[in-house]
UniProtKB/TrEMBL annotation:
Source species: Hyphomicrobium nitrativorans NL23
NCBIfam families to which the protein is assigned, alphabetical: matE
Region of interest: Disordered: 1-22
Lineage: Bacteria, Pseudomonadati, Pseudomonadota, Alphaproteobacteria, Hyphomicrobiales
Keyword set includes Transport: yes
Keywords noted in UniProt: Cell membrane, Membrane, Transmembrane, Transmembrane helix, Transport
Protein name, UniProt field: Multidrug transporter MatE
One GO cellular component term: plasma membrane
Domain of life: Bacteria
Keyword Hydrolase on entry: no
PANTHER family: MULTIDRUG RESISTANCE PROTEIN YPNP-RELATED (PTHR43549)
């Protein structure tokens, strides 16, 4: 006997379950998809663009310290973005997904328990990565092609940022718990307020003013750490005060709760590492073929690609909450429609940015430097890779949908294919032609393959075929 679709179930038990849900959860389960998704996405996109702006603001100020400082920032950027993407996207998305699925199934006690487990996980990860980078940062940046003054600049910035790494993780941990309830506005307001304070603080610490000493490139790192500390304090207060739907309660830790987060988070972290490995090793290829100016140009161009990550995360975090809540309630067909709707929006947004960058690359690159070799490398990158940005946005949005469902096989497969095409093809192109254009073409093909694999797998039903709702 076939099982009746979850969306068609009715009766006293189902109605009673619906009545126990909060109004916010019922909106995620029954509200019109496009207005609900866009209504949740706009404050989250604002917060992500604000966070991305912190890096751009620092880069703009640090670019005035010279090409070596800008090249040093290019070396550190993939690893610092790795922390941001893992804490907010991979582990953070897994936290939001677990909380959303628990609330969608009406398991409020489990949602509360997940808050404590999420905080423990983020504290541990923040401390472990801080220790690794403080101990082995010089070796890592040297392996990525850092030499001389650019290496010293990278270390001066990196050591400060990673000394305060735990605050980045706790900030995104509390924000992820709040987003899992469908509340995107509170994290947006807190982080945007922090950015407003960071804008004047960063140049004051970099260049000094009055009694404040000039800290140089390290001053940008100090400003970023202070930003994360302030955000952590405010979001922690919001959750601890009981205002959040999922509350922090002290209780015995359970391995099952850790596994619920880490099972999805590990696959997400692997996918995030793949993305950053592509950029980090591509930076090494550029460094091997050209000088610091080319590295600075490539790094500045790649910053625009990285800017797409927080933009799509702004859309993806609501997708995690919406898909996760509907999976928790057994509404699999609605979850699939949410995934395809979000993917289409992401493609349109990122493709528009990529085409604009390809047509007018100088509008972006000259914000940071006018060095001819830097402009040349950045222009070639944007004109070759920019037109494929839509596939990157599409794939990333579907990654978040898969994360909400708790099914991460196809994002991992797509990421592995991307890394093979981008790095294998880039290495071969550089060896055969000695031209950076071949490296950039391989990066573009890798991005296109990533997006196409995910949309074909999900649209055909293969990627989400194993999505199952927990027993009610």
């Amino acid at each position: 006997m076939s099982e009746m679709p979850a969306a068609a179930k009715s009766g006293p038990a189902e109605e009673a379950h619906t009545e126990t849900l909060s109004p916010a959860t019922r909106r995620l389960l029954h509200g019109p998809i496009l207005p609900t998704l866009l209504g949740m996405a706009w404050p989250n996109m604002l917060i992500m663009l604000a966070q991305a702006a912190t890096g751009l603001i620092e880069t703009w100020w640090i670019s005035h310290l010279g090409t070596d400082a800008l090249a040093g920032m290019a070396l550190t950027f993939p690893l610092i973005m790795l922390m941001q993407m893992m804490s907010a996207g991979a582990i953070g998305g897994a936290i939001s997904s677990a909380v959303a699925r628990a609330l969608g199934a009406g398991r409020r006690d489990d949602a509360d328990a997940l808050v404590l487990h999420a905080l423990v996980i983020n504290l541990v990860f923040g401390l472990v990565f801080a220790g690794l980078m403080l101990a082995f940062g010089r070796s890592i940046y040297t392996a990525l092609g850092g030499r001389g003054a650019e290496l010293e600049a990278a270390l001066a910035y990196s050591n400060v940022v990673f000394a305060g790494n735990v605050f980045l993780w706790t900030l995104n941990g509390f924000a992820s718990v709040i987003r899992g309830t469908g509340n995107m506005l509170v994290p947006a307001v807190v982080i945007c307020a922090g950015v407003a304070l960071l804008v004047p603080l960063s140049p004051l610490l970099i260049y000094g003013f009055g009694p404040l000493p000039a800290l140089g490139i390290a001053g940008g790192g100090v400003a970023l750490v202070l930003f994360n500390v302030g955000g952590t304090v405010v979001l922690a207060w919001y959750v601890l005060s009981g205002r959040n739907l999922a509350r922090l309660r002290w209780m015995p830790l359970e391995w099952a709760k850790f596994r619920e987060i880490l099972g999805v988070g590990a696959a997400g972290a692997f996918n995030t590492i793949q993305t950053n490995v592509v950029i980090a090793l591509a930076t090494a290829l550029v460094a091997a073929a050209a000088g610091a100016e080319a590295v600075a140009g490539f790094g500045t161009g790649v910053r625009l690609e990285y800017l797409l990550v927080p933009l799509i995360f702004g859309l993806g975090a609501p997708m995690v909450a919406l898909v996760g809540t509907n999976i928790g309630a057994g509404q699999r067909e609605r979850a699939l429609r949410i995934a395809l709707t979000g993917g289409a929006i992401a493609f349109a947004l990122t493709e528009a940015i990529g085409l604009a960058a390809a047509v007018w690359p100088n509008a972006w690159l000259r914000l940071f430097s006018t060095e001819p070799e830097m402009i040349d490398a950045g222009t070639r990158y944007l004109r070759i890779v920019g037109p494929t940005y839509g596939f990157f946005g599409l794939g990333l949005a579907l990654y978040f949908a898969s994360q909400g469902a708790g099914r991460m096989l196809w994002p991992v497969i797509a990421g592995l294919v991307r890394i093979g095409i981008a790095l294998g093809g880039g290495w071969l192109a550089l060896r055969w032609t000695g031209s950076l254009d071949g490296v950039f073409a391989a990066l573009a093909l890798g991005i296109a393959a990533y997006g196409l694999i995910l949309i074909l797998s999900i649209r055909s039903g293969i990627g989400l075929r194993t999505m199952k709702a927990p027993a009610q």
